[in-house]
Specification:
Layout: H1 15-21, H2 24-27, E1 32-33, E2 36-37, H3 38-54, H4 61-81, H5 90-104, H6 110-123, H7 125-139, H8 143-152, H9 154-174, H10 179-190, H11 195-210, H12 214-245, H13 277-301, H14 305-318, H15 324-340, H16 342-353, H17 356-360, H18 365-386, H19 393-402, H20 407-418, H21 424-450
Antiparallel strand pairs: 1-2
Length: 451
């Protein structure tokens, strides 16, 4: 007689099987653009349409999180669909410049533009992002390599600036531009550190030293800043593609050969420190505290707040002032902002800070070619010089590219196109310090040649 055996329990379904068995209406939540599920995207569009029907859109945090997430990831998704260009920064370019164009042609209604612009400018959204990126990436760096990286980066930066100055001036004059105009209205603004820290101080200085209306002078230098930043974004995306083909030329975001001495959650091997949500929250407070200290110092001394924040973060890292868990929490916070906030921020920048008409006004052959020659020389020199100071050529070239960007907003777009957001601390050195030096020397030279 055979013994009866109880049937073995059925195995638990795998995640894939459970997903396949889920009703179709539930699976639609896994579709969408970026981090925005399709049902929520449709809901956001409907809500904004109802606000627009009433004639105004709130400029508060809650509403703009929805607007910028939907808009930013939708533009980035379009960029990812463009064959070829998707690999050289099209998502970052479209997230920045498509909304700028839509504002220009009034495809973004005025109440919606007003809501985004007010929120972006009043909330200091940009510096929340930059602060989280700088502090998190610095605290995730190899302590032994940190100072060496900051010292070494000035070599390709200064060499590139000098070479770009000479190349831009030579190309501009060869194409028929007056040398004074080519130097002070085209080449110098590209490397001056953006709009707020570069173009505006330059135009004020030019007006006081040489006469003329400051507004007219600002209109003359802005196109070079805008088009230079666009050129840098495109080249940065190309450098990322080059790094895939020539891996020996890149550290994939690491500036120089070396390893992290903090075992982060992305460590390829060995135990990692996985911070809890409380520690990540503490890391946000740390980043904002350092930025606020920098803002106070800027108010009293004029020294840029992001640079002060950068120096404080370096001191914390070198002095082992915070715990490894908090360092890892700062790194996790950096990753959150890099993945989830980059495209919404670029969309906000495109709407609120990137006037399409200023970009288009640069579209004449002599100016375009002069800008391209300046930016390419700056980047290529950084690439070539990097080997002499034992930096990865592609990373050094990308940091140099930030010297020709649109300030902090340009840094975000350039590093996003290059997929190397962890270079933000070095990009800030390139943009803020490099830009301040450029503006100072340019005004000294302008006073000499205009007297």
């Amino acid at each position: 007689m055979e013994m009866m055996t109880s049937p073995s329990p059925a195995p638990e379904p795998t995640a894939e099987q459970a997903e396949t068995a889920a009703p179709a209406w539930r699976r639609v939540w896994d579709l969408g653009v970026g981090i925005v599920p399709l049902p929520l995207l449709l809901a956001i569009v409907a809500v904004i349409a109802l606000y627009l029907k009433k004639g105004s859109v709130p400029n508060d945090l809650t509403t703009n999180i929805l607007i910028l997430a939907a808009g930013g990831f939708a533009c980035a998704q379009i960029g990812k669909w463009i064959p070829g260009l998707s690999k050289i920064g099209a998502p970052a370019i479209l997230a920045t410049f498509l909304p700028s164009y839509l504002v220009y042609v009034h495809a973004i209604p005025a109440p919606l533009k007003e809501s985004i612009s007010t929120f972006t400018k009043d909330s200091n959204f940009l510096y929340l992002f930059i602060g989280s990126i700088i502090v998190g990436s610095i605290l995730g760096m190899d302590r032994r390599m940190l100072i060496g990286g900051f010292v070494k980066i000035f070599v390709p930066l200064f060499a590139g600036s000098l070479a770009a100055l000479a190349a831009g001036l030579a190309v501009g004059t060869a194409l028929g531009l007056d040398w004074h105009y080519a130097l002070f209205k085209v080449v110098v603004p590209i490397m001056a550190g953006g709009v707020g820290e570069g173009a505006i101080p330059l135009s004020i200085g030019y007006a006081s030293l040489g006469g003329g209306a400051q507004g007219d002078l600002l209109a003359q230098v802005l196109p070079s800043v805008m088009f230079g930043s666009l050129t840098a974004i495109l080249v940065a995306g190309s450098l990322n593609l080059l790094g895939k083909k020539k891996p020996e030329w890149t550290g994939e975001g690491v500036l120089q050969p070396g390893e992290h001495d903090v075992e982060l959650d992305s460590a390829p091997a060995g135990p990692s420190i996985v911070p809890d949500v409380t520690t990540v929250g503490a890391a946000v407070i740390l980043a904002m505290t350092l930025y606020t200290i920098g803002a106070v110092i800027q108010k009293y001394t004029g020294f840029p707040a992001p640079v002060t924040m950068l120096f404080l973060a370096v001191a914390i890292k070198l002095g082992r002032i915070v715990s490894p868990a908090l360092e890892s929490g700062a790194y996790r916070n950096y990753r959150f902002f890099a993945v989830n906030v980059t495209y919404p921020l670029l969309f906000a920048i495109g709407v609120a800070m990137t006037p399409w008409d200023k970009l288009v006004s640069a579209f004449n052959a002599p100016t375009i070619l002069t800008v391209i020659a300046t930016v390419l020389t700056l980047i290529a020199t950084g690439f070539a010089v990097a080997r002499f100071v034992r930096l990865y050529p592609i990373e050094a070239a990308i940091v140099n590219a930030c010297h020709s960007g649109q300030g902090g907003t340009g840094d975000v777009a350039i590093l996003s196109a290059a997929n190397r957001m962890q270079l933000m601390p070095f990009a800030q050195v390139s943009t803020r310090i490099g830009g301040a030096i450029t503006v100072t020397l340019a005004l000294i030279a302008f006073s000499h040649f205009s007297s």
